[in-house]
Amino acid sequence: MSMDFIDLTIQRAIEGLNKKEFSSTELTKYYLTRIKKFDDKIHAFLTICEDTSLKQAKQADDQIAKGINKPLLGIPMAIKDLFSTKDIRTTAGSKIIDNYIPPYNATAVKRLIESGAVIIGKTNQDAWGHGSSGENTDTIPARNPYDLDRVPGGSSSGSAAAVSSNMCLAATGTDTGSSIRLPAAYCNLVGIKPTYGRVSRFGIIAMASSFDSIGHITKTVHDCALIYEITAGRDSYDATTPDIPVPKYTSTLGKNIKGLKIGLPKEYFNAEGFDPKVKAITLTAIKKIEELGAHIQEISLPHTDYAMACYYILVPSEISSNLARFDGIRYGHERKTFGDEAKRRIMLGTHTLSSGYYGAYYLKASKVRTLIKKDFEDAFKNVDVIIGPSSPIPPFKIGEKTDNPVQMYLMDIFTCPVNIAGIPAINVPCGFTDGLPAGLQIIGPQFKEERLFEVAYAYEQKTEWYKQKPKL
Amino acid sequence: MDDEFEPIIGLEIHVELKTKSKMFCGCNADYFGHEPNTHCCPVCLGLPGALPVPNRKAVEWCVMLGLALNCEIPELSKFDRKNYYYPDLPKGYQISQYDKPFCINGYLEVKLDSNINKKKIRIRRVHMEEDTGKLLHATVDDPTSPSGLRGVEEKCTLIDFNRSGVPLVEIVTEPDIKSSEEARTFLKKLYQIIRYLGISDADMEKGSMRLEPNISVREVQNSEFKVQNNNLPPYKVEVKNINSFNFAKKAIDYEIDRQIELLKKGEIPKQETRGWNEKKGITYSQRSKEEAHDYRYFPEPDIPPVRWTENQKSKIKNQIGELPDKKLKRFMGDYGLSAYDANILTDTKEIADYYEKAVELGMKKKNITPKKIANWIINKKADIAKIAPEELISAVNIQLQKPTISDEEVEVAVKKVISQNSKAVSDYKSGKTNVIMYLVGMTMRTLKGQADPEKVKKLIMELLS
Amino acid sequence: MGKSKTVLSTAEVRHIAKLANLELTDKELARLQKQLSDTVDFISKIDELDIKNIEPTSQTTGLENVFREDTVRESLSQQKALANAKSQYKGFFKVKAIFEEE
After folding, report:
1. Nearest CA in chain B to C87
2. Which candidate in A265, A334, B437, C67 could, as Cys together with A328 as Cys, close a disulfide (CB 3.0–4.6 Å)?
3. Residue contact A329–B87, C-beta within 8 A
């Protein structure tokens, strides 16, 4: 039976597979064909796993036929190239390990494979996660499927571009400052940045160890919640994953959000440089949520102004240490093969940790981190979630990198404080400005992701932005 | 030595714990003598994405050692990253402890030369870290290497990461040690305690115990005022590559002399790291490691901090058991042993346990006193590795059943045998020394086997010399 | 960002590169000198805050006492351990000779 798979979500695909409307092999072939057709323009993928994915799809079909039940059985998805995939090249978007083949799977990958997912390929990204546009890849930058001259956002650029252009049903990502939320916003997708520690970091090439959050990008909130049920939870190989039970996130979707208290940080909405069109649709989206019965109030996150200084001390410091292992002895090429951005961050981080400067920088920034964390904790005493934009501006043109330093700064401000505090946030599509996607960022307290899914789902069902597709 | 100058010595000791698995991963920690790179995993190889999870037993043993060294165990402790580059360090940083180590402010009491006076050597800290891989300098003929040509040998360094990640405990003393002999005594005592606890083989030759003394020298008194000089010297020299307690003494002595000579000339010895060259008997400057390292310590983000409850600390303390000094006092008291004998019998836990088992068995037979057992083990040099305590007790028992023959009776018998066997005697005197066994045999027959054949032999040899 | 007030000297930048185990070309050094100086200027903003009595945050999970038991797990085979190495010899990783003073 021939079917147009272009509007499929994971939820619909699972239904279709179970009802034998189509097979995983058909699905996988479909996406592989789309990759062959469009990826030389979009550059979403760095490695395509044609043979292994078809094998996995066949295996999935056999299991479906036997009535075996697995949450993602036969669902083709892509893995960001920062995730170790056993026997499959893993490059982190970099040149220095462009030939590295890990002998093990990241725990998140292992859980997805055990759930029956079909791994269709490894996606493009800013090398090492260093960037928010995708342009810092050591290969060719990925493009935004909605406008091929524009960035898809980063660092999970390829993951967003792949899902958005229907080359797979979902893709994994990491978020250290904005790297899931931003590309999701720029590509009309849902992206979850989990509570730090909620999903195991084992096997994922470390950028900033106390910031890296392991998430994923999907078309819909339901798909996002489904994958989250699989990847979240304690891992004995990662000592920073708390032993907190993982709720069935999909089961509370559709919950009424009447009476929910939503905080809007005045430091975000009063900021200069917030593109007026983006601001307008953000406020429209918030109004819609209010119509669903939520109560909106203004809140303050008083230390917002210091978040970036804090971020640009702590993150490069950890980066400089995490990239020390790349010495070309056990894997990869020699250190001078690092790209410019990586070298810059390594140098900065080495300096901020160095003798004589540690107290002035790292220690101080760690204290500012306490203040920023407390800003959110205090805010959540009065509100249930915080809402803001995922980006102050629409996706910009490749190479443009906006000359406006205030706007570049704001881009970080809206998203990085969440990583500083270690709390979760989700991006849900909220409309278009001049044909370019925009996203709403919903932020919650630690380990309260179900609240984020509930609000995002309620808004999504009312607006159905996900039904829009790029014209490819 | 010199009366004008006194040495100021502090010791830095690394001890490899003999846990089954490594410090931060499940690889087998027993690396000695295995094929290279066969006990490795993503964690200890430093592969991208790997994360450390600390070994509970290793941490408990570190605390146990700290408690045995009379340390305080602070409530809160954490791991830190020590960042530097070296090919044997796969992550480009070592996970160690910086400002919140597991154990602080302890001491070890040692007996000085006189064996009567005791001295407390203060322990600044005892902390946990991980070992590095092993480097092997070699010359190989490897045509497959980028610069290699068939038949052409190139100098290279080979790396084996089997040792990478093995748990290491670091012990740092205050500079309380005043001589090489004191240092050696301290090390022997520390070694004994570590072996008693069973946490490491502490073998300096195999590398499971490593020593780096820090040595400086200062003037004893401020000339005319005869006031004791309490100022620490403005430098210290670290010495590496010492593989035994005896080498430690030699290296320290050499270094002290070298520094005194410099000071006498009016020079201040350079603050540096020097290596001990056993063959030449000298310390030499290690130029390659001369620059001060900037380790850029920061808290290890991948490992949550450790918080101890009093209950947990007590549990660990209870695992310690009786330490050597206490056991020595008890042996002297309970068994009426001399300090000398008690020292030998408590040297290792194995000997002490053996002795007490034998004493327990001996108590069931009236004549076998602890003192007798001590005598058998120490003077008769019973091989306790080969015979079980039960067999020892049997042997002692048998010997005691024999009626004792007086030395005079033995002498009478020996003289009789000598006089009755003149040919044998002349054979012996002309060089056929084996003949003595015949004479011993004859004597034993006369005495109906009730003498100590060794004593008989000795007496015959004396009389015939 | 504005003009940078704190400028890192070339010597300082070279020192940082050494600590970071990076070999930089003169061009890179010059570029990084400017970029680092700009950023250092920017991050000094935190000096405005009074944080004397604030405790630092190193981890946001609040976790403590996470361990693993002392059990042995299977290691990688020698072949797998060496698989990504540029240079190996009889089971060892191989690098250019490192001379430790003798």
Report:
1. B145
2. A334
3. yes
ipTM for the whole complex: 0.96
Nearest CB neighbour to C68, from listed B56, B285, B301? B56
Integer CA distances (angstroms), B178 to B119, B127, B248, in order: 11, 24, 14
The reply to whether residue B301 touches residue A318, judged by beta carbons under 8 angstroms, is yes
Establish if C21 belongs to a structural domain. Answer: yes
- Please report residues of B whose CB lies closer than 8 A to that of A325: 46, 48, 90-92
Q: Do B301 and A240 touch (CB under 8 A)?
A: yes
Residue C57 lies in a domain: no
Flag whether pLDDT at B296 surpasses 70. Answer: yes
Q: Which of residues 36-55 of B touch A (CB under 8 A)?
A: 42, 45-54
> Which of C24, C56, C85 has its CB closest to that of A367?
C56
Residues of chain A with pLDDT > 70, as a percent, come to: 98
Residue A93: pLDDT above 60? yes
The one-letter amino acid at B328:
L
Range with lowest mean pLDDT among B145-149, B205-209, B257-261: B145-149
Q: Which domain holds residue C15?
A: 1-45
Helix H or strand E segment including A443: strand A436-443
Give the gap in angstroms from C-alpha B455 to the nearest C-alpha of chain C: 55
Nearest to A324 among B87, B93, B301 (CB): B93
In chain A, where the domains are located:
8-467
Between C58, C81, C95, which is nearest B37 by CB? C81
Residue C60 resides in a domain: no
pLDDT at site B147: 61
- Residue A146 distance to chain B (closest CA, Å): 33
Would you say residue C31 lies in a domain?
yes
Q: How far is CA A288 from the centre of its chain?
A: 25
How many domains does the structure of chain C reveal?
1
The structural domains of chain B, ordered by start, are 5-132+163-316 (no CATH), 322-401 (no CATH), 407-464 (1.10.10.410)
The residue type of A441 is Q
- The answer to whether the Cβ–Cβ distance between C51 and A103 falls below 8 Å is no
CB contact under 8 A, B55 and C82: no
| Maximum Cα interatomic distance, chain C, rounded to a whole number of Å | 59
Q: Which residues of C touch A333 (CB under 8 A)?
A: 86
The span from the CA of A198 to the CA of A111, in Å, is 14
Fold designation for A8-467: Amidase signature (AS) enzymes (3.90.1300)
CATH number of the domain where residue C3 is located: 1.10.20
Say yes or no for a CB contact (<8 Å) between B57 and C70.
Answer: yes
CB atoms within 10 A of CB B153: 12
Q: What is the mean pLDDT of residues B341-350?
A: 94
Chain A residues lying within 8 Å of B297, measured CB to CB: 358
Set of chain C residues whose Cβ sits within 8 Å of the Cβ of B307: 64-65
CA proximity to C75, closest of B48, B35, B207: B35
| Distance, CA of B361 to CA of A406 (rounded, Å) | 87
pLDDT of residue B145: 60
